[in-house]
Design brief:
This protein has 5 helices and 2 strands; from the N terminus they run H-H-E-H-H-E-H. It is mainly alpha-helical. It has a two-stranded antiparallel ribbon. The chain is globular.
Length: 137
């Protein structure tokens, strides 16, 4: 094995280890804060089938990522087109599919004890990622 091949292998391993810890923390915090300040995504939590914006899952510990995928998908499908919601959904889905964020459990089922309105759901995303950011610093 020559030196260039060894360098290539080491670089590949380094990139994979960096990718494994990728959680998109600052991006998710920034988008979530933007949505929390946007009144157009605010709607009440209604437990009726006819509601265009029903309640969103507030995940149990260890099921955050799957619930964030489900909740943002529901928001994306039931609110007017919002590129920030779409971006959040795609980011959460990629993190779940590729197991990129090792700091969040990767159960593929959303489990929750309660449901909340959009603001409660977004605040749960924000606090979860602020916690990750605090431990990463």
């Amino acid at each position: 094995m020559n030196a260039s091949m060894l360098s290539y292998i080491l670089l590949s391993c380094l990139l994979l280890s960096v990718q494994a810890e990728f959680c998109a923390v600052r991006e998710i915090i920034r988008y979530t804060q933007r949505l929390l300040g946007d009144s157009s995504v605010s709607c009440p939590c209604r437990q009726t089938a006819t509601s265009s914006c029903s309640c969103l899952p507030i995940p149990e510990r260890g099921h955050e990522l799957a619930c964030f995928v489900d909740g943002t998908k529901h928001l994306m499908e039931n609110t007017s087109s919002n590129p920030v919601i779409t971006r959040l959904y795609l980011t959460f889905q990629a993190l779940l599919d590729r197991s990129l964020c090792k700091r969040l459990a990767h159960g593929d089922q959303c489990q929750y004890e309660t449901k909340g309105n959009v603001k409660e759901f977004l605040k749960k995303i924000l606090t979860t990622y602020q916690e990750i950011d605090k431990f990463s610093a």
